[in-house]
Design goal:
Protein name: Cys-Cys-COOH (Seleno)protein SaoC
Shape: globular
Keywords: Signal
Organism: Tepidibacter hydrothermalis
Strand content: 35-45%
Length: about 150
């Protein structure tokens, strides 16, 4: 009788262990690790805005990576700004409109100048758009795009 109770207890412990492992909610992929210092700086400075998508690259060619952040500001509005790392001193660029759904952030040095361009694409209610941005004097400049106003 005691042996049967012990076996039942072992079975219950194993079952609970397996179920506990299966119940872990997979974290959403925002593009960078949650302990990224620039992401933490953004979240501390903008506690009311939920981060949706990020990408990490040396945009201003100063040998430190910067963080592009797309974040939610209201039910149907997203914005984007960039956290520039100047040797450990973090600064925000201005903000621009960002796609509402299916956001993608890519980097490319289109013109072989020092700065890297940021390519953002996305959609809103099926309307797809994209834009190519560059940071100039802490402002995000839209160099080229198509239908971006339809997806923001």
């Amino acid at each position: 009788m005691t042996k049967k109770i012990i076996l039942n207890l072992i079975f219950m412990v194993l079952t609970l262990t397996v179920l506990a492992g299966c119940s872990d909610v997979k974290e959403s992929d925002i593009g960078v690790k949650e302990d990224n210092p620039l992401l933490n700086y953004f979240e501390e400075s903008n506690p009311d805005n939920k981060v949706i998508k990020c990408a990490y690259e040396d945009i201003d060619n100063n040998n430190t990576k910067d963080l592009v952040v797309i974040y939610n500001v209201s039910k149907d509005k997203n914005k984007m700004k960039i956290v520039i790392d100047n040797d450990g001193k973090y600064e925000f660029t201005d903000e621009v409109d960002a796609p509402l759904e299916n956001q993608s952030i890519k980097f490319k040095n289109i013109d072989d100048k020092d700065q890297i361009e940021v390519i953002v694409s996305g959609s809103k209610n099926g309307a797809v758009g994209y834009a190519i941005f560059r940071v100039v004097d802490m402002k995000i400049i839209n160099l080229f795009g198509q239908d971006m106003e339809d997806c923001c």
